[in-house]
Specification:
GO terms for molecular function: fimbrial usher porin activity. With 919 residues, the chain is mainly beta. Helix content is 4%, strand content 52%. The protein is globular, with a radius of gyration of 35 Å.
Length: 919
């Protein structure tokens, strides 16, 4: 229940609680009541005490201070009586004015100075006003812009940044995937088999490659096999196996994944660690991997972060490099919104109920199970501004397909006067290196010079003479678009080599948005001058391979060294009923005869009435020994979704259909239905039927279904699919745990890189956190509020609808400006006690006068009588005594003695209503 309801709500009026603290021609909030409307026969009550709102008495109040509607701080403010004014006036200190952004240099120094303990708003400006809301304990200050310093829009004072309390955090993501495959038919000629991690795979007759669940394997000269999807050579075991029958074989496996994001906040430090574990029933192996561990602290004065541990370089000027060491870098999030210049969204299509892995530099970032059809992963943790993401889709029928998502720097333009910089000192962190990991330093700097020019530079160097590079560039803003051009010079000296390598690379990027036509175009071209240019990663990996090969021929290693890379992205919004079009294209060429790679993607989407549809087309060119040269793979798709229900229908299901054609995989058609249900749409479901035709009379039909529950303290999901060749099932769970000063609290999700709030609302079990999905107050009075923005003012609100009638929230909204990763405690004050609505009449049968004052047994005024003689009472568990008076004579007051029915243990709290006589 929200404060302010009490007696006045029963009367149909809202109590005035805002008091204007400065004189005015007409006091805001002043009203007059006509006794003709509120009189009750012979008994009329003087309600003039409500006409001018609530009087502010002298004293100290802990209030939220707002300046021109923007929250500044919450602090104790002293109010002093002023002759001639009804309300006490607030006293401000010099530091308070500075925090408010007042231009104190323009004011009279004899009055506005640090020695004056009580500065009035009238000393700042005659037009400045102050209004106090006693109900919300909110102090609104209005100051003319001429008296304020010019600050950027969205500015939040660092004095309001809250580092929060000490806490331990745990985010988890669990996924278990089971598959049972069964194939029949004549064995392929050749009969040999290759076993990858114990999985039997046929070697097709007449070729020298094999297709299995892990991808396509190509034999190398060393006897190993190269996984063509990634270009990496992996050891495999060649031999024979005994199938279940001479006409087929069976394959069963269970794969489980657990991702843990651990965090510890103490004394402003934020320790974070990402752990992943995988278990495979077939091999019986369990593998654990520490993705990274870091400790970070704000440097407020510099608007920067200091991080030590396993991390990544920024990837803005140079490519991202994983390292173990220390880095200091400017944090754009600490800048106001108007001064700010990212993990990408992963999109793909699954043909069956599939397991999806997202990796960067070989490290597993994310794993989940997706339903057949298009999928979107938009909740990846940021790992820098560069480094392509490799996405692998493991289909339930054993097939796999892999694609890359470009993850590159955006154009370098900055606002005039804004700088971005980073300094890193550490050791290259690459798990594939076998012969040492060199130490290096990197420094980058960008500076906005004018509205059209930004300059930037950078340097990279290993501790020894292995590698040095220098970069210089400029970004310009022109009427035809934004350009950035930089040149990098690298010097590499391999240990044992006779000479050093020196090369140049040029990088050009371009972007242009045309709002009038709805066009957005981005082009990034990376061209390397010659084969002797290497990046830091190229140099380190090449040196490692040379050491392993005991060779001084730097050209021998098989490191992929880019020759030319071009990326083009075009988005066109035709507006209204004409839909949207997008195009993505990339081309990569390499030195040393490594195969080229080209990909084009084209898509169109639109809505006809309430039917959504989309067309997609893609073409990929791959040059590989597997295909005896080069080969194009074309894909086409049509997607349609139709809502089953009217526009105003709640939880209306969606019917969807998709037609997919792939030159390699054949045709795949799907029809399905999905939707949500529950009073807050906390449950979701989907069911699909797939028909796949890979050609050569090979076809199959698959049915699958999934269920999900977004609970208040975690998320659960399960799925199952069936076809004539396999059965597949999966279960998953995700959520978070926070250990804080008040105990242990569960959360449906936690992003350890974002701040959270620990809400304390005693006895308010069931109240929902409006800004955090399904989150609600638990039985101990706590909840975790997520989705907070660091260094920004965030509103955290509670919805008391589901709480007991015996609990009153004294406020439903609090604000906080947390630091990055902070755990901020927020306490919502509550009043608990049994609630009752009393309808009282006088002995002569007349109702009690409207507006009569009600006094409890302790002599405290607890409210007034509402319409129809109704009184709202809280706190008396079994009953009590109230005194009602509407005048000074004995016959203008009476006493109410009421009793409430006893409640059984565990009975749901409701509003008790009772009728009594006032004697």
């Amino acid at each position: 229940m929200v404060p302010g309801f009490a007696f006045a709500a029963a009367a149909g009026i809202e109590p005035a609680s805002a008091a204007a603290l400065e004189p005015a021609s007409a006091e805001p909030g002043s009203v007059q009541f006509s006794e003709a409307f509120i009189g009750t026969g012979k008994s009329t009550v003087d309600v003039s005490r409500f006409e001018n709102g609530v009087t502010v008495l002298p004293g100290s109040y802990n209030v939220d201070i707002y300046v021109n509607e923007g929250r500044i701080s919450r602090q104790n403010v002293q109010f002093r009586a002023v002759d001639g004014l009804k309300n006490a006036q607030p006293c401000f200190h010099y530091a308070d004015l500075v925090t408010m952004g007042v231009d104190v240099g323009k004011l009279d120094a004899t009055v506005v100075n640090p020695q004056n303990p009580c500065i009035s708003m009238s000393d700042v400006s005659p037009e400045a006003t102050v209004t106090m809301d006693m109900g919300e304990l909110r102090l609104d200050v209005s100051i003319p812009q001429a008296s304020l310093l010019k600050r950027a829009r969205g500015y939040v004072s660092p004095e309001l940044w809250d580092q929060g309390e000490a806490a331990f955090l745990l985010g988890y993501n669990f996924n278990a995937y089971s598959v049972n495959q069964s194939y029949s038919g004549p064995r392929a000629s050749g009969g040999n088999a290759i076993s990858t991690d114990g999985t039997p795979v046929q070697v097709q007759s007449g070729t020298y490659y094999t297709q299995g669940p892990g991808g396509v394997y190509v034999p190398s000269s060393t006897g190993n096999y190269m996984l063509s999807n990634t270009g990496a050579y992996v050891p495999v075991q060649i031999g024979s196996y005994s199938p279940a029958s001479s006409t087929g074989y069976r394959y069963n496996d269970i794969n489980a994944y657990l991702g843990l994001n651990l965090g510890l906040n103490v004394a402003g430090w934020r320790v974070r660690s990402v752990e992943t574990g995988q278990w495979d029933q077939k091999t019986g192996r369990t593998t654990w991997h520490n993705f990274n561990t870091t400790a970070t602290h704000d440097i407020t004065k510099w608007k920067a972060q200091f991080t030590v541990g396993d991390s990544y370089t920024q990837g803005i000027v140079f490519d991202t490099t994983p390292f173990r060491g220390a880095t200091v870098y400017s944090d754009d999030r600490m800048l106001p919104d108007s001064q700010q210049g990212f993990a990408p969204v992963v999109r793909g299509v699954a043909n069956t109920q599939a397991r999806v892995e997202v990796r960067q530099n070989g490290n597993l970032l994310y794993e989940t199970t997706v339903a057949p059809g298009p999928f979107v992963i938009n909740d990846l943790y940021s790992t820098g501004y560069g480094g392509d993401l490799n996405v692998t889709v493991f289909e339930a029928d054993g097939s796999t397909h892999t694609f890359s998502v470009p993850y590159s720097a955006v154009p370098m333009l900055l606002r005039p006067g804004v700088s971005r910089w980073a300094i890193t000192d550490g050791q290259v962190r690459d798990t594939t290196l076998q012969n040492g990991k060199p130490y290096f330093v990197e420094g980058t700097y960008q500076r906005g010079i004018t509205n059209w020019l930004t300059l930037y530079a950078g340097v990279q160097s290993t501790y020894r003479d292995l590698y040095h590079s220098y970069l210089g560039g400029a970004a310009v803003n022109t009427p035809v678009g934004a350009f950035a051009l930089d040149v990098t010079n690298s010097h590499t000296t391999f240990k044992g080599a006779d000479n050093s390598l020196s090369g140049y690379s040029a990088r050009l990027s371009y972007s242009k948005a045309i709002p009038t036509s709805g066009t957005t175009l981005a082009v990034a071209s990376y061209r390397y001058s010659n084969s002797k240019f290497l990046t830091l990663s190229d140099a380190v990996q090449t040196q490692d391979q040379l050491t392993s090969m005991h060779s001084v021929d730097w050209a021998a290693p098989t490191v992929l060294r880019s020759r030319q890379r071009i990326q083009v992205t075009l988005n066109q919004d035709f507006g209204g009923k004409y839909g949207q079009l997008y195009f993505n294209g990339s081309r990569n060429t390499y030195w040393n005869g490594m195969p080229d790679a080209t990909t084009y993607q084209l898509g169109y989407s639109n809505t006809y009435r309430r039917v959504n549809y989309g067309l997609t087309a893609s073409r990929t060119y791959t040059s590989s020994p597997v295909f005896r040269g080069g080969r194009y793979d074309n894909q086409f798709g049509l997607n349609i979704s139709i809502p089953l229900g009217g526009p105003s229908s709640k939880n209306a299901p969606m019917l969807s259909a998709a037609l997919q054609h792939d030159d390699t995989m054949g045709n795949n058609d799907r029809v399905g239905i999905n939707g949500t249900f529950g009073d807050r749409s906390q449950y979701n479901y989907n069911a699909n039927v797939n028909y796949a035709d890979t050609g050569n009379s090979n076809s199959s039909t698959t049915a699958s279904g999934n269920m999900g529950w977004q609970a208040a303290y975690g998320n659960l999901n399960a799925g199952y699919s069936y076809s004539s060749h396999y059965q597949q099932g999966s279960v998953g769970a995700s959520g978070g745990v926070v250990v804080h000063g008040g105990g242990v609290t569960l959360a449906p999700q936690i992003d350890l890189n974002s701040p959270i709030a620990i809400i304390e609302a005693p006895d308010a079990k069931g109240a929902r956190v409006s800004s955090s999905g399904q989150t609600k107050i638990d039985g101990r009075g706590y909840a975790v509020a997520t989705s907070l923005m660091p260094y920004r003012m965030n509103d955290v609100t509670l919805d008391p609808t589901s709480t007991s009638m015996d609990v009153e929230l004294q406020t439903t909204r609090l604000q906080t400006a947390p630091r990055a990763g902070a755990v901020v405690p927020l306490k919502f004050n509550t009043v608990s006690g049994r609630a009752a609505l009393i309808r009282a009449t006088q002995p002569n049968g007349e109702v009690l006068p409207f507006g009569a004052e009600v006094i409890d047994a302790n002599g405290n005024s607890v409210g007034t009588v509402g319409q129809g003689g109704q009184m709202f009472v809280r706190g008396a568990e079994e009953g009590g005594v109230l005194t009602v008076h509407w005048g000074d004579s004995d016959h203008e007051q009476c006493r109410v003695n009421y009793q409430l029915p006893a409640r059984s243990k565990g009975q749901v709290s409701i509003l008790d209503v009772t009728n009594v006589m006032c004697h």
